[in-house]
Amino acid sequence: MAEQKQGEGRVVFSRPNSLLPVVTNYCPGCPHGIVHRLVAEVIDELDIEGRTVGVAPVGCAVTAPDFFGCDMIEAAHGRAPAVATGVKRVLPDNVVFAYQGDGDLASIGTAGVSGAGMIMLAMVLTQVGLPVEGIAIIAGVDKLFDMGRTTLNITGDATCALFISRLEREKAAKKAAKAAK
């Protein structure tokens, strides 16, 4: 552990072992560094560094793998919980955590988290001074809309994957035909 002593050898700061000895690149006042330290302290206290996997999405949290001593995986916005769930299913004996910033949880990645629209709506209503109780009007149909949005999202992803696969097959066929000449 990195230690800084004051006066007669009294330890006033000790870096957790699972927090790498590097300078972070976060903005002044950003809480990511504090949260990193807290997560690293827990990893050390539980003595689980060798069997811990963290999942961090793009955005500010994308640099988290540079600071933690455990294995880390990067995910797309809003997909860290899904990726972490998949990792836990594949590695059931490991400790898996998802590390997400406010932008990932409360804006860009919101669409990837089921039911997050209701939370975001409550936040917006509160900010503009409208009663949050109004959410009850749409709560009954929100799940149906959520399923529709998810279906549309998955259909779009699958369509793009199929289109790219088709383009790759055509490219390979042209290359094979050209080589056969």
Question: What secondary-structure arrangement, pairings included, does this model have?
Answer:
Blueprint: E1 3-6, E2 10-14, H1 32-46, E3 52-57, E4 71-75, H2 80-90, E5 95-98, H3 102-106, H4 116-127, H5 136-180
Parallel strand pairs: 3-4, 3-5
Antiparallel strand pairs: 1-2
Structural notes for this entry:
This protein has 181 residues and is α/β, with parallel strands linked by helices. 49% of the residues lie in helices and 13% in strands. It contains five helices and five strands. The strands form two sheets. A three-stranded parallel β-sheet has the order 4-3-5, with helices on one face. It has a two-stranded antiparallel ribbon with strand order 1-2. A hairpin with a 3-residue loop joins β1 and β2. The longest helix is centred in the C-terminal third of the chain and has 45 residues. The mean pLDDT is 85.
Quick rundown:
49% of the residues lie in helices and 13% in strands. It contains five helices and five strands, in the order ββαββαβααα.
The secondary-structure class comes to alpha/beta
Give me the oligomer status.
single chain
Proportion in helices: 40-55%
Q: Tally the beta strands.
A: 5
Strand order of the largest sheet: 4-3-5
| Shape annotation | flat
User: What value does the average pLDDT take?
Assistant: 85
Number of helical regions: 5
**Uncertain parts:** none
**Could you spell the SSE succession in H and E letters?**
EEHEEHEHHH
Largest sheet report: 3 strands, parallel
User: Strand-residue fraction?
Assistant: 5-15%
- Rounded to the nearest angstrom, the radius of gyration is 23 Å
Distance between the termini: 66 Å
